[in-house]
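Weekly sync notes, structure subgroup
Attendees: PM, AL, DS (notes)

Item 1: joint prediction request from the bench team. They want all four components modeled as one assembly rather than separately. Inputs as received:
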Amino acid sequence: MDKKYLDSIIKEYKHYTIEGQVADYIPELKKMERCDLGIAIIDRDNIFTAGEWEKKFTIQSVSKPIVLILALMDRGEDKIFELVGKEPTGDPFNSMVRLETYTMNKPLNPMINAGAISISSLIKGKDNEERLARILNFFRLLSDNESLEVNQDVFKSEKETGNRNRSLAYFLKDIHCIEGDVEEALDLYFMQCSIEVNTLDLAKIGLILANDGLNINTGEQLIPKKYAKIAKTFMLTCGMYDESGKFAIDVGIPSKSGVGGGIMSSVPQRYGIGVFGPSLNKKGNSVAGMRMLEKISKDYEMSIF
Amino acid sequence: MDKKYLDSIIKEYKHYTIEGQVADYIPELKKMERCDLGIAIIDRDNIFTAGEWEKKFTIQSVSKPIVLILALMDRGEDKIFELVGKEPTGDPFNSMVRLETYTMNKPLNPMINAGAISISSLIKGKDNEERLARILNFFRLLSDNESLEVNQDVFKSEKETGNRNRSLAYFLKDIHCIEGDVEEALDLYFMQCSIEVNTLDLAKIGLILANDGLNINTGEQLIPKKYAKIAKTFMLTCGMYDESGKFAIDVGIPSKSGVGGGIMSSVPQRYGIGVFGPSLNKKGNSVAGMRMLEKISKDYEMSIF
Amino acid sequence: MDKKYLDSIIKEYKHYTIEGQVADYIPELKKMERCDLGIAIIDRDNIFTAGEWEKKFTIQSVSKPIVLILALMDRGEDKIFELVGKEPTGDPFNSMVRLETYTMNKPLNPMINAGAISISSLIKGKDNEERLARILNFFRLLSDNESLEVNQDVFKSEKETGNRNRSLAYFLKDIHCIEGDVEEALDLYFMQCSIEVNTLDLAKIGLILANDGLNINTGEQLIPKKYAKIAKTFMLTCGMYDESGKFAIDVGIPSKSGVGGGIMSSVPQRYGIGVFGPSLNKKGNSVAGMRMLEKISKDYEMSIF
Amino acid sequence: MDKKYLDSIIKEYKHYTIEGQVADYIPELKKMERCDLGIAIIDRDNIFTAGEWEKKFTIQSVSKPIVLILALMDRGEDKIFELVGKEPTGDPFNSMVRLETYTMNKPLNPMINAGAISISSLIKGKDNEERLARILNFFRLLSDNESLEVNQDVFKSEKETGNRNRSLAYFLKDIHCIEGDVEEALDLYFMQCSIEVNTLDLAKIGLILANDGLNINTGEQLIPKKYAKIAKTFMLTCGMYDESGKFAIDVGIPSKSGVGGGIMSSVPQRYGIGVFGPSLNKKGNSVAGMRMLEKISKDYEMSIF
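Output from the run, pasted for the record:
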């Protein structure tokens, strides 16, 4: 791996950005530049970056595995999986059908919106302010970046237009899969989605996961090993919306995407990777980002299989 | 038809009330007496009553065809059926599955909760106070009972525990099947469900429908004929939750039930019938009420088929 | 009602045939003439006909309520409704989803293909030849037409291309909703669908149903009253595929359509009606036939509501 | 890893067999001994076995990833994934719902029955005899065991009672996801499921997959690397019916189970594992087998995450 290789990859894959569109379901996201493409890869000793790697974007669904880990640390495995299932699914990101179809009567997994909203409601804190502070601090700790903040415009936009998520949340409340107040859980969820990061932040978090929760520079175990593995498993089985299966076959790296254009990947024992490419395909995944990761995975034999 | 016949029917069917339970999904409804059973039947010239015919109960889903008529009068057939479908369904009263499964992406009909909430959002009025006043006045006009009021305790109870309906409503908003504010539409829906009536009120409204909207005493056309027929059609095809088909076969009278224990029936050109029996079967229909109607329909050949 | 009226109706509605297409799912049905439109109406004393009323076509799904009646006469109400439900549904005619979604684990009603195939498997007879003879004789008796026969080309075509129905049938077998051999039940079902009739045949059967099973000319009770009412109820609630609700509102007459272009209608106590118009809309119903029935129902106040 | 360790594991986990039941959906499978438990683990240099490792059982669904590989070698990746999807699912093994719910209108993946039947229909051969011979030879080659045969009694039993699979197959034919004759595809599928193996056979095949298709003893590349990885990916994301997600988290090894009691696991670059434990939980997975693999995975850090 070297800087020159990454530069050439960005150059080679940039034109794929014209095949997709930036997210348009909230006004704030529409402002992103479709042709942006950036990447950061970290291993034990090096940081490699290329393209618009420094640009900030909202983390969106990439927050899901991270907040899941915090919830696991706060409440333990038993409590979490009492409210949310472990089974993969090829669902579209905003589907409601499964909730009632399934006899188990809880969200299938923490990577779909329903599951993620349940998870957010389980974060400890005396009020939402404290809960958000704890989430933000956890993101800052993992990314080693004290400056991470919520983009308030995106948060407001999410909150105003989030009727489908609101519908999910009240349904979850009805089946006892949300703790506490529904609107507070939703607010917290919308806020965690609105945290701004860049590719380096994602790569750093990805590297912590790759090393089973250990910060290899400081020797500090930031996440219990078991929870880091749980997060990576969900990322592999359902981290890319309903293209998770295809991505597992073509790329084979535990990864989580978000409609802000980000992808966080974690190559066990080896690399943390952050990608930014806001031009999305119909499934909600970065068009150029996915292709780029497929190429890199092949060139450096990163598949876990 | 005579009083003696009805008295004997009440006596004969009263013991069936032990086969069911009063509704327990909101605390206020649990207070009803399981063994109550009452009936009122009106034709052109007579009023027959028996049992607890005078007891008040909340109208609940029996309000659906009536508010549908008001919405039709307010907004016209085209607008109504742009937002809500016409197709019968054997759905449980609180199901959400169908909304997304169906390609047409609107509630299947105005008798299921989703459809009824959409319909409530279409009632004219500058605010909810005016809308509620218009609904109440319409119920009073049809039942010739100026004293009808909303039971505030039931309303509050419905509002506090209505997370499933709230979930439905936000989903409906997301697919553009609710006009205006979601919480206002829900409040109006919960209020219409909480109007208190007795069997005579229901029988009188049922008679207006039986006579295609005409008040035969005053000669006044209270409802356009077409809309009265639409209401009766929905009552026949989907008025008894997911027992509508069985009821159409066994009884054959357009009827609408509610979890307050009420059933309003309308025998075209002949009778209006109100039943009260708060002991419900698992489908949400009055156990003794349904059986009583089957018996009366057979004895007086009331089936429309 | 008079001949002149019907002639004018045919003339007025004929051009609607260009809005649809003849059925194309089996080769034999594609041979029909799209612009054909015919009607026959019978009451106690008269027969009125117009257009292509004499043309033969295969009865297809119009056979469903008739074979249901024979099965009820053969096996009794309890046995029939142990295997098949009574609940209306707006399902497309070839849907499989509902079978498993529904907890009751049987076809929702006898008007959808799944239910009709179950019903066919319940017809008495030592072998399929005898069963078919009994069905044919029943159709001949009700239509007072000894010449009714199965169109063997259509039968073969149905059998060869009927993989979706075959799939349904094996699923039904698995959930114990088919008696005896699956392929025999399917053959019988395909044969009953391939019986050739004209509009007068359908009108005559419709009149028997209108008169609760009584042949008013001979005074013979051909069908028990209860079963005639059951058939009419299913025709009203689910006789027109997933337009049954719309048709109930707009027309209000118990009717059953088939993809051969036929519609059989039954106006209680008054008329039997047969329609032929092979140009179908997307739901599988005769485009011009439906509109014609709406007009006639309004002009002669035929709605049962 | 050593023999003593495996012996102690078998001893420790044997009592879990009383928590489940042997498969009872076909008579032949009911004959298995509930308390059997065996294991074989192979790495580059050693073979370790314990318990009833030598007992024969039918391979059942463990055949799915293997026949998938043969189909990929026969027809190429594009053809295979034109007919069958790549998305994981927590579906029960015999569900039909998804087929129609999903817009993509093909089986979600090759590990569910629908997908596996489609795959079987794609195996090359001039008739079923040749196709079966090719499958058997492929199994013999991978397991280095020339004596593998189809258990004819199980095959007949599967064929006779396979109405749900037959239903799936005709539906697949209807949506053009089966090539050639439906009954032939079903026969081939039932035959591949009825091949008898023991744990050592499964371990050997698992080792070939672990080594990306290479027979490390002979140096022969028996399977293209890409296809071995595809098989392992499906095993991880959907190899354990609707416990695949839980198993991925708790065990983290690409594995495929069958209702014959077998599990084949493949630890990339390290081990092939075969398990036999016919006492199944409600999901269709070996009760004691799953727990045993969880223990071994933890003791030897086998998780791929």
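Discussion: Chain D touches chain C through 17 residues (CB under 8 Å).
Action: AL to compare against the crosslinking data before next sync.
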